[in-house]
Amino acid sequence: MAAGPPPEEIHFSQRPQVEGSIPGQRSRELLEKQSEIEANTVAYPRSLPIAMDAARGATIRDADGNVYLDFFGGIGVANVGHSNPYVLSAAQDQLDSLAHTIDFPTEARIEFLEALDGIAPGSLPGNSRIAFGGPTGTNAIEASIKLARYNTGNEGLIGFDRGYHGGTAGALSLSGWSSYKSDYEPLLSGVVHVPYPTARGQERGPAASLERTLTQLRAVLRDDDTPSPAGIWAEPIQGSGGVIVPPEGFLTGLRAIADDHDLLLIVDEIQTGMGRTGEWFGCTRSGITPDAVTVGKAVGGIGLPLSATIYREEFDTWGPSAHAGTFRGHVPAMIAGARAIEYIDSHGLLDRAQDLGSYLRERLAECANACPSLVDVRGRGLLVGAEFEAADGSPLPSVVEAIQDRCLRRGLVVWTAGIEGHVLRLLPPLVLTDEQARVGMDILTEVIEDVTRASTETPDVAGRRS
Predict the structure, then answer these.
(1) How far apart are CA 305 and CA 2, in angstroms?
(2) Backbone angles phi, psi at 317, to 5 degrees
(3) 406-455 pLDDT, tens per residue?
(4) Considering the entire predicted model, what is its pTM?
(5) In order of start, what are the domains of the chain with their CATH numbers?
(6) Which residues have a Cβ under 8 Å from the Cβ of 14 and sit 6 or more positions away?
(7) Less Cβ crowding at N or C end of the chain, within 10 Å?
Protein backbone atom coordinates (compact mmCIF):
# COMPACT_ATOMS: atom_id res chain seq x y z
CA MET A 1 0.00 0.00 0.00
CA ALA A 2 1.30 3.45 -0.94
CA ALA A 3 2.30 5.75 1.89
CA GLY A 4 -0.23 8.51 2.37
CA PRO A 5 -2.38 10.24 -0.28
CA PRO A 6 -1.11 10.28 -3.88
CA PRO A 7 0.75 13.40 -5.06
CA GLU A 8 -2.14 14.68 -7.18
CA GLU A 9 -4.34 15.06 -4.07
CA ILE A 10 -2.14 17.23 -1.86
CA HIS A 11 -2.29 20.64 -3.62
CA PHE A 12 -4.54 23.68 -3.32
CA SER A 13 -5.19 23.60 -7.06
CA GLN A 14 -3.81 22.53 -10.42
CA ARG A 15 -3.35 26.07 -11.70
CA PRO A 16 -2.71 29.56 -10.32
CA GLN A 17 -5.53 31.65 -8.89
CA VAL A 18 -4.38 35.28 -8.85
CA GLU A 19 -6.58 38.36 -8.65
CA GLY A 20 -5.56 41.99 -8.53
CA SER A 21 -2.10 43.43 -8.17
CA ILE A 22 0.88 41.61 -6.69
CA PRO A 23 1.65 42.18 -3.88
CA GLY A 24 -1.88 42.57 -2.53
CA GLN A 25 -2.82 44.85 0.30
CA ARG A 26 -2.22 42.43 3.15
CA SER A 27 1.10 41.28 1.67
CA ARG A 28 2.17 44.92 1.39
CA GLU A 29 1.38 45.52 5.04
CA LEU A 30 3.33 42.47 6.20
CA LEU A 31 6.28 43.25 3.93
CA GLU A 32 6.44 46.78 5.34
CA LYS A 33 6.27 45.54 8.95
CA GLN A 34 9.03 43.03 8.28
CA SER A 35 11.28 45.68 6.73
CA GLU A 36 10.81 47.93 9.78
CA ILE A 37 11.97 45.28 12.25
CA GLU A 38 14.06 42.58 10.59
CA ALA A 39 17.68 42.89 9.44
CA ASN A 40 18.76 43.89 5.96
CA THR A 41 19.92 40.31 5.44
CA VAL A 42 16.36 39.36 4.39
CA ALA A 43 16.68 38.61 0.67
CA TYR A 44 13.91 36.59 -0.97
CA PRO A 45 11.01 39.07 -0.61
CA ARG A 46 13.10 41.59 -2.55
CA SER A 47 12.61 39.44 -5.65
CA LEU A 48 9.32 37.75 -4.69
CA PRO A 49 7.29 40.49 -2.92
CA ILE A 50 4.58 38.42 -1.30
CA ALA A 51 3.71 37.39 2.25
CA MET A 52 2.91 33.70 2.60
CA ASP A 53 -0.10 32.30 4.42
CA ALA A 54 -0.05 28.56 3.64
CA ALA A 55 1.34 26.00 1.21
CA ARG A 56 0.27 22.55 0.05
CA GLY A 57 2.12 20.26 -2.32
CA ALA A 58 3.42 22.36 -5.20
CA THR A 59 1.21 25.36 -4.44
CA ILE A 60 1.54 28.44 -2.22
CA ARG A 61 -1.21 30.75 -0.95
CA ASP A 62 -0.29 34.30 -0.05
CA ALA A 63 -1.78 36.53 2.65
CA ASP A 64 -4.27 37.96 0.13
CA GLY A 65 -5.61 34.55 -0.92
CA ASN A 66 -3.75 34.26 -4.22
CA VAL A 67 -2.55 30.76 -5.11
CA TYR A 68 0.73 30.22 -6.98
CA LEU A 69 2.34 27.24 -8.63
CA ASP A 70 5.63 26.67 -6.84
CA PHE A 71 8.61 25.99 -9.13
CA PHE A 72 10.88 27.27 -6.33
CA GLY A 73 10.37 24.66 -3.61
CA GLY A 74 12.08 26.65 -0.88
CA ILE A 75 15.36 26.31 -2.83
CA GLY A 76 15.06 22.54 -2.84
CA VAL A 77 13.53 22.02 0.60
CA ALA A 78 10.00 20.89 -0.37
CA ASN A 79 10.87 17.73 -2.31
CA VAL A 80 7.77 15.85 -1.11
CA GLY A 81 5.69 19.02 -1.27
CA HIS A 82 4.66 21.60 1.28
CA SER A 83 2.78 20.18 4.28
CA ASN A 84 2.70 16.69 2.78
CA PRO A 85 0.00 15.13 4.99
CA TYR A 86 1.75 11.77 5.40
CA VAL A 87 4.97 13.43 6.54
CA LEU A 88 3.26 16.22 8.48
CA SER A 89 1.13 13.88 10.58
CA ALA A 90 4.21 11.91 11.67
CA ALA A 91 5.99 15.13 12.70
CA GLN A 92 2.93 16.36 14.58
CA ASP A 93 2.56 13.08 16.45
CA GLN A 94 6.23 13.20 17.41
CA LEU A 95 5.91 16.82 18.53
CA ASP A 96 3.05 15.83 20.82
CA SER A 97 5.27 13.34 22.65
CA LEU A 98 8.88 14.55 22.43
CA ALA A 99 10.62 17.25 20.41
CA HIS A 100 14.16 17.73 21.65
CA THR A 101 16.52 14.99 22.82
CA ILE A 102 20.03 16.39 22.14
CA ASP A 103 21.51 13.02 21.10
CA PHE A 104 19.69 10.56 23.34
CA PRO A 105 18.29 7.65 21.32
CA THR A 106 14.63 7.45 20.34
CA GLU A 107 12.74 5.09 18.05
CA ALA A 108 12.34 7.94 15.55
CA ARG A 109 16.03 8.77 15.55
CA ILE A 110 17.06 5.16 14.95
CA GLU A 111 14.50 4.80 12.16
CA PHE A 112 15.85 7.90 10.46
CA LEU A 113 19.48 6.81 10.83
CA GLU A 114 18.66 3.48 9.24
CA ALA A 115 16.70 5.15 6.43
CA LEU A 116 19.56 7.52 5.61
CA ASP A 117 22.10 4.72 5.70
CA GLY A 118 19.90 2.65 3.39
CA ILE A 119 19.85 5.24 0.59
CA ALA A 120 23.47 6.44 0.91
CA PRO A 121 25.45 6.34 -2.35
CA GLY A 122 27.95 3.74 -3.44
CA SER A 123 29.12 1.28 -0.81
CA LEU A 124 28.18 3.52 2.14
CA PRO A 125 25.04 1.56 3.13
CA GLY A 126 26.02 -0.67 6.02
CA ASN A 127 29.44 0.98 6.11
CA SER A 128 28.63 4.49 7.27
CA ARG A 129 28.36 6.71 10.31
CA ILE A 130 26.06 9.73 10.50
CA ALA A 131 26.82 12.92 12.44
CA PHE A 132 24.22 15.55 13.34
CA GLY A 133 25.12 19.01 14.59
CA GLY A 134 23.25 22.16 13.70
CA PRO A 135 20.02 22.56 11.76
CA THR A 136 21.36 23.81 8.41
CA GLY A 137 23.43 22.39 5.58
CA THR A 138 26.31 24.76 6.27
CA ASN A 139 26.79 22.99 9.61
CA ALA A 140 27.17 19.68 7.82
CA ILE A 141 29.92 21.27 5.73
CA GLU A 142 31.65 22.45 8.90
CA ALA A 143 31.45 18.89 10.25
CA SER A 144 33.00 17.54 7.06
CA ILE A 145 35.91 20.01 7.30
CA LYS A 146 36.60 18.91 10.86
CA LEU A 147 36.28 15.25 9.85
CA ALA A 148 38.79 15.61 7.01
CA ARG A 149 41.30 17.60 9.03
CA TYR A 150 41.04 15.25 11.99
CA ASN A 151 41.59 12.11 9.92
CA THR A 152 44.40 13.43 7.73
CA GLY A 153 46.16 15.85 10.07
CA ASN A 154 46.32 18.26 7.12
CA GLU A 155 45.14 21.86 6.93
CA GLY A 156 44.44 22.59 3.26
CA LEU A 157 41.02 22.50 1.61
CA ILE A 158 40.23 22.25 -2.10
CA GLY A 159 37.01 23.66 -3.53
CA PHE A 160 35.77 24.84 -6.92
CA ASP A 161 35.12 28.16 -8.59
CA ARG A 162 31.42 29.16 -8.39
CA GLY A 163 30.81 26.52 -5.73
CA TYR A 164 28.54 27.43 -2.84
CA HIS A 165 28.57 25.52 0.46
CA GLY A 166 26.98 27.81 3.05
CA GLY A 167 27.36 30.93 5.15
CA THR A 168 29.59 30.04 8.09
CA ALA A 169 33.33 30.70 8.05
CA GLY A 170 34.50 27.27 6.90
CA ALA A 171 31.73 26.84 4.35
CA LEU A 172 32.32 30.36 3.00
CA SER A 173 36.02 29.62 2.71
CA LEU A 174 35.24 26.61 0.52
CA SER A 175 32.75 28.55 -1.58
CA GLY A 176 34.02 30.07 -4.80
CA TRP A 177 31.88 33.25 -4.73
CA SER A 178 33.96 36.29 -3.83
CA SER A 179 30.85 38.49 -3.62
CA TYR A 180 29.54 36.36 -0.75
CA LYS A 181 32.69 36.46 1.34
CA SER A 182 34.93 39.39 0.37
CA ASP A 183 33.58 41.59 3.17
CA TYR A 184 34.44 38.98 5.80
CA GLU A 185 37.97 37.97 4.87
CA PRO A 186 40.33 36.69 6.00
CA LEU A 187 38.55 33.37 6.41
CA LEU A 188 40.21 29.96 6.66
CA SER A 189 43.73 29.82 5.28
CA GLY A 190 45.02 27.13 2.95
CA VAL A 191 41.95 27.02 0.70
CA VAL A 192 42.51 26.59 -3.04
CA HIS A 193 39.85 26.76 -5.76
CA VAL A 194 40.11 25.12 -9.18
CA PRO A 195 37.77 25.55 -12.18
CA TYR A 196 34.56 23.55 -12.16
CA PRO A 197 34.30 21.74 -15.51
CA THR A 198 31.48 22.55 -17.90
CA ALA A 199 30.65 22.07 -21.56
CA ARG A 200 29.43 25.68 -21.78
CA GLY A 201 31.88 28.15 -23.22
CA GLN A 202 34.55 25.55 -23.89
CA GLU A 203 35.57 25.54 -27.55
CA ARG A 204 37.03 22.06 -27.39
CA GLY A 205 34.06 20.56 -25.57
CA PRO A 206 33.38 18.92 -22.22
CA ALA A 207 36.29 16.46 -22.37
CA ALA A 208 38.77 19.32 -22.64
CA SER A 209 37.05 21.19 -19.82
CA LEU A 210 37.25 18.14 -17.58
CA GLU A 211 40.90 17.52 -18.38
CA ARG A 212 41.70 21.17 -17.64
CA THR A 213 40.10 20.84 -14.20
CA LEU A 214 41.84 17.58 -13.33
CA THR A 215 45.18 18.89 -14.61
CA GLN A 216 44.94 22.01 -12.45
CA LEU A 217 43.91 19.92 -9.47
CA ARG A 218 46.97 17.68 -9.88
CA ALA A 219 49.14 20.80 -10.18
CA VAL A 220 47.77 22.13 -6.89
CA LEU A 221 48.64 18.85 -5.20
CA ARG A 222 52.21 19.04 -6.54
CA ASP A 223 52.70 22.63 -5.36
CA ASP A 224 55.00 22.65 -2.33
CA ASP A 225 53.81 26.14 -1.39
CA THR A 226 50.21 24.92 -0.90
CA PRO A 227 49.33 23.55 2.56
CA SER A 228 48.84 19.80 2.46
CA PRO A 229 45.14 19.30 1.73
CA ALA A 230 42.77 17.33 3.89
CA GLY A 231 40.13 16.85 1.24
CA ILE A 232 38.29 17.89 -1.90
CA TRP A 233 34.76 19.36 -1.67
CA ALA A 234 32.56 19.22 -4.77
CA GLU A 235 28.90 19.57 -5.72
CA PRO A 236 27.75 16.91 -8.21
CA ILE A 237 25.86 19.77 -9.91
CA GLN A 238 26.49 23.37 -8.96
CA GLY A 239 23.03 24.63 -8.06
CA SER A 240 23.53 28.18 -6.82
CA GLY A 241 26.48 28.57 -9.17
CA GLY A 242 24.21 28.32 -12.19
CA VAL A 243 22.93 24.72 -12.42
CA ILE A 244 26.27 23.68 -13.89
CA VAL A 245 26.27 20.00 -14.86
CA PRO A 246 29.85 18.71 -15.13
CA PRO A 247 30.99 16.35 -17.89
CA GLU A 248 30.77 12.61 -17.34
CA GLY A 249 33.80 11.38 -15.44
CA PHE A 250 34.16 14.39 -13.14
CA LEU A 251 33.49 12.63 -9.85
CA THR A 252 35.30 9.52 -11.06
CA GLY A 253 38.35 11.65 -11.75
CA LEU A 254 38.14 13.29 -8.33
CA ARG A 255 37.81 9.90 -6.66
CA ALA A 256 40.98 8.65 -8.37
CA ILE A 257 42.96 11.76 -7.43
CA ALA A 258 41.75 11.65 -3.83
CA ASP A 259 42.79 8.01 -3.59
CA ASP A 260 46.21 8.73 -5.10
CA HIS A 261 46.91 11.46 -2.54
CA ASP A 262 45.16 10.01 0.54
CA LEU A 263 42.57 12.80 0.61
CA LEU A 264 38.93 12.67 1.58
CA LEU A 265 36.42 13.29 -1.19
CA ILE A 266 33.40 15.10 0.23
CA VAL A 267 30.34 15.50 -2.00
CA ASP A 268 27.98 18.35 -1.10
CA GLU A 269 24.46 17.00 -1.69
CA ILE A 270 22.64 19.71 0.25
CA GLN A 271 20.73 20.86 -2.84
CA THR A 272 21.05 17.81 -5.09
CA GLY A 273 20.22 15.15 -2.48
CA MET A 274 17.04 13.44 -1.34
CA GLY A 275 15.76 12.70 -4.85
CA ARG A 276 16.13 16.13 -6.45
CA THR A 277 18.07 14.84 -9.48
CA GLY A 278 15.95 11.72 -10.00
CA GLU A 279 18.24 9.60 -7.85
CA TRP A 280 18.64 9.73 -4.09
CA PHE A 281 21.91 11.62 -4.51
CA GLY A 282 23.42 13.52 -7.39
CA CYS A 283 26.61 11.47 -7.21
CA THR A 284 24.81 8.12 -7.45
CA ARG A 285 25.00 7.80 -11.22
CA SER A 286 28.80 8.26 -11.17
CA GLY A 287 29.20 4.93 -9.40
CA ILE A 288 31.76 6.27 -6.94
CA THR A 289 31.60 6.12 -3.15
CA PRO A 290 32.38 9.46 -1.50
CA ASP A 291 34.23 9.50 1.79
CA ALA A 292 31.56 11.84 3.11
CA VAL A 293 28.25 13.27 1.92
CA THR A 294 26.65 16.40 3.36
CA VAL A 295 22.86 16.71 3.38
CA GLY A 296 20.45 19.45 4.40
CA LYS A 297 17.44 21.25 2.87
CA ALA A 298 14.99 18.42 2.00
CA VAL A 299 16.43 15.97 4.53
CA GLY A 300 13.99 17.32 7.15
CA GLY A 301 11.02 16.11 5.13
CA ILE A 302 8.72 19.14 5.02
CA GLY A 303 11.13 21.97 5.68
CA LEU A 304 11.94 21.14 9.28
CA PRO A 305 15.52 22.24 9.99
CA LEU A 306 18.02 19.38 9.94
CA SER A 307 21.35 18.48 8.42
CA ALA A 308 23.71 15.53 8.55
CA THR A 309 27.11 14.32 7.44
CA ILE A 310 27.22 10.72 6.23
CA TYR A 311 30.72 9.30 6.07
CA ARG A 312 32.71 6.08 5.82
CA GLU A 313 32.83 4.10 9.04
CA GLU A 314 36.64 3.97 8.92
CA PHE A 315 36.77 7.74 9.47
CA ASP A 316 34.78 7.59 12.70
CA THR A 317 37.95 8.19 14.71
CA TRP A 318 36.90 11.29 16.63
CA GLY A 319 35.40 11.20 20.11
CA PRO A 320 32.34 12.44 22.02
CA SER A 321 31.36 16.08 21.31
CA ALA A 322 33.96 16.36 18.54
CA HIS A 323 31.10 17.80 16.54
CA ALA A 324 28.15 18.94 18.62
CA GLY A 325 25.10 21.16 18.53
CA THR A 326 22.07 21.84 20.68
CA PHE A 327 19.61 20.88 17.94
CA ARG A 328 21.20 17.61 16.88
CA GLY A 329 18.21 15.97 18.55
CA HIS A 330 15.38 17.54 16.53
CA VAL A 331 13.24 14.40 16.52
CA PRO A 332 10.19 15.77 14.62
CA ALA A 333 12.52 16.58 11.71
CA MET A 334 14.02 13.11 11.89
CA ILE A 335 10.71 11.27 11.72
CA ALA A 336 9.61 13.66 8.97
CA GLY A 337 12.79 12.82 7.08
CA ALA A 338 12.18 9.09 7.43
CA ARG A 339 8.58 9.46 6.24
CA ALA A 340 9.66 11.60 3.29
CA ILE A 341 12.07 8.86 2.16
CA GLU A 342 9.22 6.35 2.48
CA TYR A 343 6.85 8.62 0.52
CA ILE A 344 9.33 9.19 -2.32
CA ASP A 345 9.98 5.47 -2.62
CA SER A 346 6.32 4.47 -2.32
CA HIS A 347 5.13 6.84 -5.05
CA GLY A 348 8.03 6.37 -7.47
CA LEU A 349 9.06 10.00 -7.23
CA LEU A 350 12.66 9.37 -8.32
CA ASP A 351 11.50 8.23 -11.76
CA ARG A 352 8.90 10.97 -11.67
CA ALA A 353 11.59 13.61 -11.13
CA GLN A 354 13.49 12.35 -14.16
CA ASP A 355 10.38 12.38 -16.37
CA LEU A 356 9.19 15.81 -15.22
CA GLY A 357 12.69 17.25 -15.49
CA SER A 358 12.95 16.05 -19.09
CA TYR A 359 9.62 17.69 -19.84
CA LEU A 360 10.65 21.02 -18.31
CA ARG A 361 13.93 21.03 -20.21
CA GLU A 362 12.23 20.08 -23.48
CA ARG A 363 9.76 22.95 -23.15
CA LEU A 364 12.58 25.38 -22.45
CA ALA A 365 14.61 24.04 -25.38
CA GLU A 366 11.62 24.60 -27.69
CA CYS A 367 11.33 28.13 -26.33
CA ALA A 368 15.03 28.73 -27.04
CA ASN A 369 14.38 28.31 -30.77
CA ALA A 370 12.46 31.59 -30.75
CA CYS A 371 14.56 33.32 -28.08
CA PRO A 372 18.22 33.79 -29.08
CA SER A 373 19.17 35.12 -25.64
CA LEU A 374 18.19 31.77 -24.08
CA VAL A 375 21.57 30.21 -24.83
CA ASP A 376 21.54 27.04 -22.74
CA VAL A 377 19.11 24.70 -20.99
CA ARG A 378 20.57 22.16 -18.59
CA GLY A 379 20.07 20.21 -15.41
CA ARG A 380 19.19 16.79 -14.12
CA GLY A 381 15.87 15.66 -12.70
CA LEU A 382 13.98 18.55 -11.16
CA LEU A 383 17.00 20.83 -10.92
CA VAL A 384 16.76 22.84 -14.13
CA GLY A 385 18.64 25.89 -15.35
CA ALA A 386 18.11 28.25 -18.29
CA GLU A 387 20.94 30.68 -19.09
CA PHE A 388 20.41 34.07 -20.73
CA GLU A 389 23.12 36.02 -22.56
CA ALA A 390 23.35 38.90 -25.00
CA ALA A 391 24.72 38.39 -28.50
CA ASP A 392 28.19 39.40 -27.29
CA GLY A 393 28.14 36.75 -24.57
CA SER A 394 27.52 39.14 -21.67
CA PRO A 395 25.11 37.91 -18.97
CA LEU A 396 21.54 39.22 -18.86
CA PRO A 397 20.43 39.33 -15.21
CA SER A 398 17.84 41.99 -16.01
CA VAL A 399 16.10 39.54 -18.34
CA VAL A 400 15.95 36.86 -15.66
CA GLU A 401 14.70 39.40 -13.13
CA ALA A 402 11.94 40.45 -15.50
CA ILE A 403 10.97 36.83 -16.16
CA GLN A 404 10.77 36.12 -12.44
CA ASP A 405 8.71 39.26 -11.81
CA ARG A 406 6.21 38.66 -14.60
CA CYS A 407 5.85 34.98 -13.73
CA LEU A 408 4.96 35.94 -10.16
CA ARG A 409 2.21 38.27 -11.38
CA ARG A 410 0.77 35.39 -13.38
CA GLY A 411 0.93 32.98 -10.45
CA LEU A 412 4.19 31.10 -11.00
CA VAL A 413 7.09 31.26 -8.54
CA VAL A 414 10.57 30.72 -10.03
CA TRP A 415 14.09 31.48 -8.84
CA THR A 416 17.53 32.42 -10.14
CA ALA A 417 21.12 31.20 -10.02
CA GLY A 418 24.63 32.09 -11.12
CA ILE A 419 27.09 34.63 -9.80
CA GLU A 420 25.80 37.14 -12.36
CA GLY A 421 22.15 36.22 -11.69
CA HIS A 422 21.52 35.39 -15.35
CA VAL A 423 20.35 31.79 -14.91
CA LEU A 424 16.72 30.94 -14.29
CA ARG A 425 16.54 28.06 -11.79
CA LEU A 426 13.59 25.69 -11.38
CA LEU A 427 13.31 23.42 -8.31
CA PRO A 428 9.66 22.35 -8.12
CA PRO A 429 8.57 19.72 -5.60
CA LEU A 430 8.80 16.15 -6.82
CA VAL A 431 5.01 15.87 -6.31
CA LEU A 432 4.33 18.32 -9.16
CA THR A 433 1.47 16.98 -11.31
CA ASP A 434 1.40 16.73 -15.10
CA GLU A 435 -1.23 19.47 -15.26
CA GLN A 436 0.76 21.78 -13.00
CA ALA A 437 3.89 21.17 -15.07
CA ARG A 438 2.04 21.96 -18.29
CA VAL A 439 0.33 25.09 -16.94
CA GLY A 440 3.52 26.33 -15.31
CA MET A 441 5.58 25.84 -18.45
CA ASP A 442 2.90 27.51 -20.57
CA ILE A 443 3.20 30.56 -18.35
CA LEU A 444 7.00 30.46 -18.24
CA THR A 445 7.57 30.03 -21.97
CA GLU A 446 5.09 32.78 -22.82
CA VAL A 447 6.80 35.13 -20.34
CA ILE A 448 10.27 34.26 -21.68
CA GLU A 449 9.15 35.02 -25.24
CA ASP A 450 7.57 38.33 -24.17
CA VAL A 451 10.55 39.44 -22.08
CA THR A 452 13.24 38.46 -24.57
CA ARG A 453 11.29 40.20 -27.33
CA ALA A 454 11.11 43.32 -25.20
CA SER A 455 14.82 43.08 -24.39
CA THR A 456 15.67 43.54 -28.05
CA GLU A 457 13.64 46.76 -28.08
CA THR A 458 14.82 48.36 -24.82
CA PRO A 459 17.74 47.68 -22.45
CA ASP A 460 15.49 48.03 -19.37
CA VAL A 461 13.17 45.02 -19.40
CA ALA A 462 12.78 44.47 -15.69
CA GLY A 463 10.09 47.10 -15.28
CA ARG A 464 8.88 48.63 -12.05
CA ARG A 465 7.17 46.52 -9.42
CA SER A 466 3.79 47.73 -8.26
Answers:
(1) 26
(2) -100, -10
(3) 999 999 999 999 999 999 999 999 999 999 999 999 999 999 999 998 87
(4) 0.95
(5) 7-77+348-455 (3.90.1150.10), 85-346 (3.40.640.10)
(6) 433, 435, 436, 439
(7) N
